[in-house]
Each structure stands twice: as structure tokens, then as C-alpha cells.
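Quick one before lunch.
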Amino acid sequence: MLKAILLSIVFPSVLAAQTGKLDIWWVDVEGGAATLIVTPTGESFLIDTGNPGERDAARIFDVATRQAGLRKIDALFTTHYHGDHVGGAPALSKLIPITKYYDHGDSVEPEGSGGKPWIAYKSVAAGNRSPVKPGQVIQLREVKLDVVSSAGKVLSKPINGGGPNPFCDGAIQKDIDKSENGQSAGLLLTYGKFKFFDIGDLTWDREMMLACPVNKVGAVTLLQATHHGFFNDASGAPALYNALKPVVVVVNNAPKKGLQPSAYELISKLPGVEGVWQLHEAVDSDKAHNTAEQKIANPGSEDQGHWVKATVAKDGSFTLTNSRNQFSETYQSR
Ligand SMILES: [Zn+2]
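Model of the zinc ion complex:
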């Protein structure tokens, strides 16, 4: 008993973080991205940091410390250098230590307004940056992270049981994207049977490279809808998402950003999809193009900051929870 008390004084952050389950939080950053992953052994891995300024950094810090019990973030993985994905990094790094920084390499938009968040990121991450390549594996203790895209390139061969893709027939292709979106570094996380897929704002052209003529990703369990819910159809190639067959989709949209009716139509009708969860109600859409109210963390247009969480057990069962109303639903990995 005394030993346990002493241990809890010496290693409070480690003890608090070790739940034996994999936890994923989608922090509400109002149409940006900030996805915090804490592994069963307490390793922490944050994908993106939301927008510049104090609000989003404070929200990530709050979830990291009060929900996850963290004292530091082991790694920040930045998908790309648009402000809604990397903007919070400087403020967050002042609130909590960040040990390591993964990214896609240098920005392709170094000038003008697109360059500001990149320059700010470079200075906080200096000396601790580690650019990633497709095919690279980031191995944590019980969790594997496969890099599927980075710097405009994607996996050269299938992983995770990927193969011929029947959804490529007649699939629409789009022009090569030259912005930071198309540079997005993306990940497939594997924890036993559970697979989580997050490719930031990767664009339609690169989604097609991942999907056709062979599906290089295989099937996934939980999809973070790309580009805040296929924003303006710049992402959302059906050939990829039909082949991924997610059980659950989480959309980190904003009241008026992402998840237009066409995106909701695609997501809600993917083969085998059992649940769609949204960070926000898409206020310009009707009820038929939003998920059930209890699975929307932030209804209406007000800035409320409620998060969505997934807790994944070792056997592959996982539970989604809405922090606004504590509504939860449990699903099985296939
Ligand atoms: Zn974005």
C-alpha cells in the first residue's frame, strides 16, 4: 500500500495514463484537426494542433491533462502546414512539453499567409523534427503506425491486406493538387484488430493513388473523415472510402465547414458503416444530412468545445462517447 502511494507520487503521469485501453480524443477545434491518441501503455501521440492562438492549444491541453492525465506529449504528428492543423503548435508547446515532431518535410507554401504557421512551427520544432515517408513504420509498444502518405507521395505497395479494388471501375480522377493539402502525411494505426485511419486533408488525386488500381490500405475500423468531411469535394474519392469499409466515421467538421450533403451521402452509405459521429452539426444541411443529434458533440453554431472520444479494448471492441451528453455506443472491429 505504502509502496503504491509512493509510486503514485513519483510517477503520477504514468499511472494516470495507463488505462490498459487505447484512447482517441477528437478535440473540438472548430473545423481544424487535433486528434490525441494515448496507447494502453500510456504513450501519447497527437495528430495536429488546431488553429493559431490560445483557444485550441488550451482545449488540447485540457484534454491531455484532465482527461488523459498526461504531463507531456511524446510525439506531435503534423499532417500539413495549414493553420487549422499546425496553428496551435507554438501555444501548445508552451503549455506542455512535446518531445518529438513528425511531419512531411518542408512546406510547399512557404510564402504569404500559408507560410506563417509553417515558420512558427519550424521554430518550435527545431532540432526535434523527424520527416516521414510512405511505407515507414512508427512502432509504439502495443500500437503500430504505418505512414501511408507524405509530401505528395503514397504507399508504393499494399499493406494491411489491401489488394484489387472493384470500386475503381469508372472512378472519377481529379487534377494533381499543388497545395499543402496534397502534401498531407497520413497514418494507419493498428492495435490488434482495430485500425484507425487519418490522412489529414489529403486530396482526391492522392486518395485515388491510394485506392486504384489496387487498394493499398486494406480495410479500416475507424475513419477520421478526410478534410473535415470532404470539404468542397477536394477530398472524398468514393473508390477509396468504399474500399476502406469503416465501421465508424468521425467527422471533425465545423458548423459551416466540411460535411456538405454530398459528403454525408457518401459517408453514411459506405458498405458496412454502423455509426457516424460529428464534432459539429452541419448547420446549412437538413436533418437527413446530419447524424443523430446524440452523436453530434456541438449542435448549432455556438462555439462550445465538446469533444468525442473512442476507447478501444484489446479484443477490438470500442466505445464512442460524446462529452456534451455522455451518450455512448459500442462497436466491434471486424
Ligand atoms: Zn484542414
